[in-house]
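Researcher: Predict the fold of Type II restriction enzyme MjaIII.
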Amino acid sequence: MIGLNNLYEEAIQLFTQQPNLLEAVPVLFASRDVHLDVMEVDEDESIFFYNLDFKNVDTTNIQKYVDFMQKSGLLDFLKHSANRSLVDYAYGVEVGLDSNGRKNRSGKVMEDLLEGQLRAVADFYGYQTMTQATAHRMRQEWQVEVPVDKSERKFDGALFDSHKRRLFSSKQTTMEVEAVN
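Model: C-alpha cells for Type II restriction enzyme MjaIII follow.
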C-alpha cells in the first residue's frame, strides 16, 4: 500500500477481500484499542461521533473504515511519508508503545495529526483550539472551569465554543462549562 497513487481505491479493494487486515489499523495509530471513538464534522456542519470496531469488522461498511483512514491522514501518510514496509512500521509502533523514547516520537506524529484536524474544525466553526490542554491552561486562556477526575489531567486536544460555552475534548465528551468568576 505504501506509495500507491490510487491508495483509497486499493484500500477498499484490499479490505473488502481481506477485512481481517483492518485489525492492524489501530496499531498504525499507536493504539492498542480495537474500538475507536471518532468525532467527525459532516457536510451540514454538524459534529457527530461514531465507533469503529476493528476486532469485529463490519464487512458491509468497509468504506467507513477507509474513509476514517483517509480523513485521519493515515492514507496520506502511507502515500507520501512511509518509506519502508508496513510490517516494519507496525513493528516499530508496537515497540514504541513499550519504549518511552519511541512512544514520545510516535506521540508527536499523532499530536501533529490531531492538531491539524482540530485546527480545521476550529477554523470552520470559529472555535478556539488547544493541544495538550490541562484544566489549568483552559481556565487561564478561556476563563472556564473544567471538571476533571485528576488534578492535572491532560487532554490530547480541546475545542472551545465561546458563544455557547461548550468544550469538546478528545475523550469523546462535550461539556457545558461555567465562566470563572
